[in-house]
Design brief:
This protein has helices at about 50-55, 70-75, 270-275, and strands at about 20, 25-30, 35, 40, 60, 65, 115, 120-125, 125-130, 130-135, 140, 145-150, 150-155, 160-165, 165, 175, 185, 205-210, 215-230, 250-255, 260-265, 280-285, 290-300, 310-315, 325-335. By secondary structure, it is mainly β. The strands form ten sheets. A five-stranded antiparallel beta sheet has the order 17-25-19-23-22, covered by helices on one side. A hairpin with a 2-residue loop joins β11 (about 140) and β12. It is rod-shaped and about 145 Å long. It starts with 18 loop residues before the first strand and ends with a strand. The model has no long low-confidence stretch (mean pLDDT about 75).
């Protein structure tokens, strides 16, 4: 074997320690002592020094006191032998993992559940009979923009009616087609006259369907009906009158956004373009009949007690346009 460097043992005072070969077993010369942790001498020949030292080994606690291993273990476990954490966990974004949250229906050991608004305020939930509801006003919203406002009109057994105002992305009021306890189906009027067969060539004649004084009106349909001895197409006629009209029959709507032109009718073909799909009818008989209806479906609302209206203005002489010519509007009154 090769030559290895010499290994010399020194005591605590830097004196070389002599090693003696005692019948094949090397030992330190002089008196060798093994001490326990308590400082008492242990006889290696008669005592299990490893077991003795392990049993009597000590740990130092955080405050400098000595504690046995068993004492330290006892201090971090409860009676069921499960380790417990007494210090608060540090703040962070890591998840804890699978943690039992208790039984939701249990009155004890269950985690509280809260509804919180965007500012971190707890939203109250009230048990109303067998139904939980929000404590205060509720709004249907997307992000920070309120899309609808819900208001309970009345609450009776098995019946709840809510009032809501919906708006399109362009800010236009939108209502859903619905039935109503009060349906207002009336023709536009000039005073008490519903007939559009008037001369408005010199002074325009205005016919209106006005807002109700007490209830909003959700408009459902606008329909023109013409009866004449002859209603023809392809010759620019208006009803049975030669055309086209010079100024046109003007249909407008007035709402909270202002007054807007819905359409202007100059000839019979314009009634076809005005109508919704399936809303045009032309019957040829001893007296020809033409109807043209535009389905609104609640998308236009006349506000109660305002100047909102649907108006038809005759700006030409329609006296000879037929034997019957009216514009009727259907609307549901909100309650």
């Amino acid at each position: 074997m090769g030559i290895s460097p010499a290994v010399i043992l020194y005591d605590a005072n830097s004196n070389p320690v002599t090693i003696i070969n005692d019948s094949g077993t090397y030992r330190v010369s002089g008196v060798t002592k093994v001490l326990s942790a308590a400082g008492s001498q242990v006889n290696p020949a008669t005592e299990d020094t490893l077991a003795t030292r392990a049993t009597e080994a000590t740990l130092s606690t955080a405050d400098g006191r000595l504690a046995t291993i068993d004492a330290v273990l006892d201090s971090i476990k409860d009676v069921d032998g499960i380790k417990k954490i007494t210090d608060q966990l540090p703040a962070g974004t890591n998840e804890i993992g699978a943690v039992a949250q208790g039984t939701k229906a249990s009155a004890v050991n269950a985690w509280p559940e809260y509804l919180v608004d965007s500012s971190g305020n707890v939203v109250g939930v009230v048990l109303d009979g067998a139904v939980y509801r929000l404590q205060t006003d509720s709004k249907v919203a997307k992000g920070s923009s309120a899309l609808g406002h819900l208001e309970a009109l009345d609450v009776s057994t098995g019946v709840v009616r809510l009032k809501t105002s919906l708006y399109s992305q362009a800010g236009e009021p939108v209502s859903l087609p619905s039935t109503s306890a009060s349906v207002r189906n009336e023709c536009v009027l000039n005073g008490t006259n519903p007939s559009l067969l008037v001369d408005g060539s010199t002074t325009p004649v205005v016919f209106t369907y006005d807002a109700d004084p007490s209830h909003d009106i959700s408009l459902q349909e606008i329909r023109f009906t013409v009866a004449a001895n002859s209603v023809t197409f392809g010759s620019d006629a208006f009803g049975s009158r030669a055309g086209p009209l010079s100024n046109g029959l003007l249909l407008e709507s007035t709402t909270s956004e202002g007054t807007f032109t819905v359409t202007t009718l100059y000839q019979n073909e314009d009634f076809v373009n005005f109508s919704s799909p399936g809303g045009f009818s032309w019957v040829v008989s001893s007296k020809d009949l033409m109807t043209s209806a535009y389905l609104i479906g609640g998308g236009l609302v006349l506000r109660a007690g305002t100047s909102d209206k649907v108006s038809v203005t005759v700006r030409d002489n329609l006296s000879s346009a037929g034997i019957y010519f009216r514009c009727c509007v259907k609307g549901n009154l909100s309650i």
